[in-house]
Design a protein that fits this description.
- It holds the Pfam family DOT1.
- Keywords: Chromatin regulator, Methyltransferase, Nucleus, S-adenosyl-L-methionine, Transferase.
- This is Histone-lysine N-methyltransferase, H3 lysine-79 specific.
- Belongs to the class I-like SAM-binding methyltransferase superfamily. DOT1 family.
- Its EC number is 2.1.1.360.
- This protein is of the alpha/beta class.
- The chain has one domain: Rossmann fold (3-Layer(aba) Sandwich).
- It contains four helices and five strands, in the order E-H-E-H-E-H-E-H-E.
- A five-stranded parallel β-sheet has the order 3-2-1-4-5.
- Strand 4, helix 4 and strand 5 form a beta-alpha-beta unit.
- The chain starts with 11 loop residues before the first strand and ends in a 43-residue tail after the last strand.
Length: 165
């Protein structure tokens, strides 16, 4: 993802459902991104994210490596307290593969408030590549999105047991 998206010093990166925080830490370490946020609801991954945060800072200091500002947050990204963070994002990452249609719908409602030009990177499309505007879907976020598909990297792995596509 980092190689396929031009991340600049003006970007605000938000990972919705950030798990243990590895994507947030990678973006903070490998890009000039202004700030990175990760929001995770589940208790166990949030605890591991806290440990990852500590180890990341320790190892980066040990090796003399610089990294950008980031914050790993335990919470529900659908709550209003996180709305401002999401709205300020220029890049949103969401691994929505395991989310149901209800959460996907709520995310689409949140995405309607993103700034023009914001990029959404998701594991499952929020609208098809061949989306057509009709009277029935005028209120769908797909009417204002430009959708493109990212190429998987060679040797990619997936936590689902299925090939990355």
């Amino acid at each position: 993802m980092i190689d396929q998206i031009d991340i600049t010093a003006e970007d605000v990166f938000v990972d919705l459902g950030s798990g243990v925080g590895q994507v947030v830490l990678q973006v903070a370490a490998a890009t000039p991104c202004r700030v990175c946020f990760g929001v995770e609801k589940a208790e166990v991954p949030s605890r591991y994210a806290s440990s990852m945060d500590t180890y990341f800072r320790t190892w980066m200091k040990w090796y003399g490596k610089k990294f950008g500002e980031y914050k790993l947050i335990k919470g529900d990204f659908l709550m209003d307290e996180h709305r401002e963070k999401i709205n300020s994002a220029t890049i949103v990452f969401v691994n929505n593969f395991a989310f149901g249609p209800h959460v996907d719908h709520q995310l689409k409602e949140r995405f309607a408030d993103l700034k023009d030009g914001a990029k959404i990177v998701s594991s499952k499309s929020f609208c098809p590549l061949n989306f057509r505007i009709t009277d029935r879907n005028l209120s769908d976020i797909g009417t204002i999105m430009h959708v493109s598909e990212m190429s998987p990297l060679k040797g990619s792995v997936s936590w689902t047991g299925k090939p990355v596509s």
